Amino acid sequence: MAVTIADVAKHAGVSRSTVSYVLSGNRSISAETIARVEASIAELQFRPHAGARSIRTKRTGVIAMALPLVHGPHNQVQMPYVWAALTAAQDAGLKLLMLTDDDGASAIRDAVGTAAVDGVMLMEVQHKDPRAKLLRSLKCPAVLVGTPDNPYGLPYVDFDFAACGRAAAEHLLERGHAHVGFLGQHPETYRRGVAYAAHARDGALDALREQGAQATWTSCLPSAGGVVDALSELLGRDPDITAMVVYNEWALPLVVDRLAGLGRPDVDIVAICPDDAVDRLATPVTSVSLPVEELARTAVQRLAGLLNNEVQPSVTMLAPVLKVR
């Protein structure tokens, strides 16, 4: 049978209200009484209700990840971030609440306004992200995972996607390619102004054009038909393409297969993706590695530090690593 407050009160020789006051901290209780109650709690292995603990500590032990989930097969791309953040939160003694609404502002306002969470980790950050301004106005501890045009004074953690795109393009330039295509994310990602997608694309295209190369880009729907259409568009606009930067993890194996089917297996590819996406390919592909786990883990650690009133760096930028295969 579960131990109750009444059991603790009887064991400690105090009233039930005294035990409640010790748990909540709402009244001044003598040090001797507090010690006696806490000893009884420990001996009886009493587990206070989470609400009672939160009243005393002003903390819930819960952080939120605001991540609009992309529907369809693209979900598998987002899940490693979720699992890495969940593990990091557990390591920090925190629980993770997912806020997955497409319009994250209302969910954030509700979670913070009702004191359901201690802090928020903001994902899928847009160039002009109203959620960042909202979090600032709510005075809620928060970390942005991405680089907006204006972070409103909130700390942010990101992979240097502009440098990532540039590294991929410069590798292809060094290999002598003068006509390079860039196959990017879902068109909705660009329409919403998600920062990482634009930063990677612009970094690659800028590097190519600075060296006088022909640079062509298109977005790509996460489907076999989407890959066919995207490659048709790229090769239709520039039939002389001899290399591609592929920043679409889901599409990558289909791109490799489709190029082989078109009689173009010689097209040089640099992928921007986590290592395991390349490892699954039958054909080796050079890549710029995305440290998914490190990014999510770092963001959780920054947020946990804020909750503990520890000064955190305003910007944490992870550098790209080119892996030639």
UniProtKB/TrEMBL annotation:
Keywords: DNA-binding, Transcription, Transcription regulation. Gene3D superfamilies: 3.40.50.2300, lambda repressor-like DNA-binding domains. GO terms for molecular function: DNA binding. Residues 4-44 form the HTH cro/C1-type domain. It comes from the Bacteria. InterPro entries: Cro/C1-type_HTH, HTH_LacI, LacI/GalR-like_sensor, Lambda_DNA-bd_dom_sf, Peripla_BP_I. Residues 3-57 form the HTH lacI-type domain. This is LacI family DNA-binding transcriptional regulator. It comes from Dactylosporangium darangshiense.
